[in-house]
């Protein structure tokens, strides 16, 4: 044996030993014990709680992650349009009519409302602030709506109000995360991601979960409110625009022909496929399908997402401003997308944070302009969906992330220069319409000054449970395994609000 | 009064104390059975027997005190009582024999007897506490968890026998039935219901607001008097409505639903009973048939999906299908024939914006199971509508943006299930609406054309300066 052979032999041995090292006795014991333990545990877990219903099994096909899937039970709604008023609109100026509060306007806030409470800004003893609007009852349901929503008040009979919504988060970002992801911290999938994960989407040439923003700024919680969290990344919201190209870089660059684009995407996919064969990571298959969809979207998206080809009377109905990013354009686009089989359309409209520290967020100045910017489009949306026969199967949700105080805001004990209200967790109003929701219903009541809920109290989990129920899911069974335990959108809460279901 | 309350208080320890004799005596008996092989165990046997017998006697006393409360009555209690006493006596005798060293010959036999007595007594006690049949309900299904079965024709049903009694059985019998009568109330037979419980009558005919039975259902969940107790399955709002309607109409035990005055409030509740959603209140679509059906052939479905048509079951629990041509609209005319093999399963068909035409609709005539048909934005005309006359289950028809007119529509007035027709942007003549609505008395005809006027405030902004003025 030569010296070289010896060295070679040693090297081989060393390599073998290295492999053995990674497989120590401890590893071996751990693995076998885990295997046996897991088997025993599984059967144990399976045998206890025998009456528990089986979890919804969602088949995830990484090569076709967005193909439509059947819901666990027959749902009334096929798609959802979620209109989120980021910043939290004031219930006192829109829906929750409180004449008693008007009588207390300008008086010191009674100490019983302040003891043990914490507010985002208010300190000391603030003054009460009466409703900054006149109210009237509307429709056959007799729902109270303020003068700020002259259009919406004509369609209240299509809508179900929840007037005693509560939350436990008084800052924007965590409260928005709670509403959209079921938890106040980062990392959970948004409701749109859950829904597209569970149901896929009808139109394979468009994303299943589209996000549209307006108001000049993103919601405070950032893009996490439409993130996919621990769900496969293909289910995250796809942000589109109602101004310019609907999706950035959707046009082929100058000099790039359609054939060349196709060839380049095929080449990328081939390389990805190679990678998949090596690592077997299903995310790579999702990536391939995303490239393919992007290629198809280059043709379909500009067509579907172009609101300019809508007739003039539709533009007048929604009050759109073609060529500009605004809420009305997004609402019209949302209708077009739902019509084309998009599962979940999420709108964020920023600018509702009525503190009254400057004119633009004063209840009697800037915020009135916010009312005006949503009143007509939202009304048009409900009526347009109705006349197209889509309202029955499209669930429309209008919600902020929390409510506002019946007190006028002060900062460091000094009253704000304009009329405004602080963040409030104990009561606010949201509404839902269509998708099997009871028409003209009102659920929940607040006390006589609207400080807190007295009956029909619901929270974000209840709303999420209700949305999932309308789509055909039992929110308690709709889970995703992550970090060793099943997760669900509603965490450990949530009760379907039967009172507003038709 | 104080003494009675004290007796009751002591009696309530019975469910806890019974576990002592069960455990201790079982241990004694097991030691006895192994005593031959392990003689070292022997000395501990009499000690265990003594304490087991004492615990059994205390259990008997507390059990007797508990039975005085009257919540438990009937044969089950008597059996449980005597078997419990037997257990105490036998274990005491066994102890004495053991002490006197006379037991050697009977030891095994005595041990087995005590085990048998404990098992049977324990089971009877369990049946008293949790209701008879508790042990097997996991296998047979819990009656309370079982949803109400749909009633084929609610108007012809006898309100008490077909609706009220099954409801009471599901939610009340376990505590107010033959084996247990909490509050001395039984709800399982007509004369018992009328007799009431220890707080007086349960129902006052025609006055649900004054009837204990209804009042307690409506108390807040956290109220001690709320029924059913908050840990038990609760009644749904619909179930409460039914009971309250039954009492308000005179709690008849024989009358049929149709013989009773029906308020507007109760009508939807009754309708829900018929469709089967009465008990559970879960979202339920009426446009998917209840009947079970076999799954569609895989080949037929594959042909469709390969052509880019979306074929999806309406839910995981049903084989009924929904089909959408949303991205295959340009070939709908040719591909629509592929739907033939799905005629039994297909309930929802979306052809919006496709190239389907009047001739193409002929293929749809065979799809008699359709409940929803979407044809908006297609080139169909009155001539095509005649093919839809055979769709006797059709409930929703979407014709938005087509060239159909009132003349074509009238052909469909014989469709029995038709609930809504969407006619926005069609060629239906304005003057014909009144006539059309007469032809379709039960159908919503939505002509659309809604407008939202533009107000001055819609296009102007409020500024700080304006507000100052």
From TrEMBL, chain A:
Transmembrane segments: none annotated. InterPro entries: Alkaline_phosphatase_core_sf, DUF1501, TAT_signal, TAT_signal_bac_arc. Coiled coil: none annotated. PROSITE patterns: TAT. It holds the Pfam family DUF1501. NCBIfam families: TAT_signal_seq. This is Tat (Twin-arginine translocation) pathway signal sequence. It comes from Niabella drilacis (strain DSM 25811 / CCM 8410 / CCUG 62505 / LMG 26954 / E90).
UniProtKB/TrEMBL annotation, chain B:
The chain crosses the membrane at residues 16-35, 47-67, 79-97, 104-125. One of its GO terms (molecular function) is electron transfer activity. It holds the Pfam family LRR_6. Keywords: Membrane, Transmembrane, Transmembrane helix. Residues 172-231 form the Cytochrome C Planctomycete-type domain. Coiled coil: none annotated. PANTHER family: CYCLOINULO-OLIGOSACCHARIDE FRUCTANOTRANSFERASE-RELATED (PTHR35889), F-BOX DOMAIN-CONTAINING PROTEIN (PTHR35889:SF3). This is Uncharacterized membrane protein. It comes from Niabella drilacis (strain DSM 25811 / CCM 8410 / CCUG 62505 / LMG 26954 / E90).
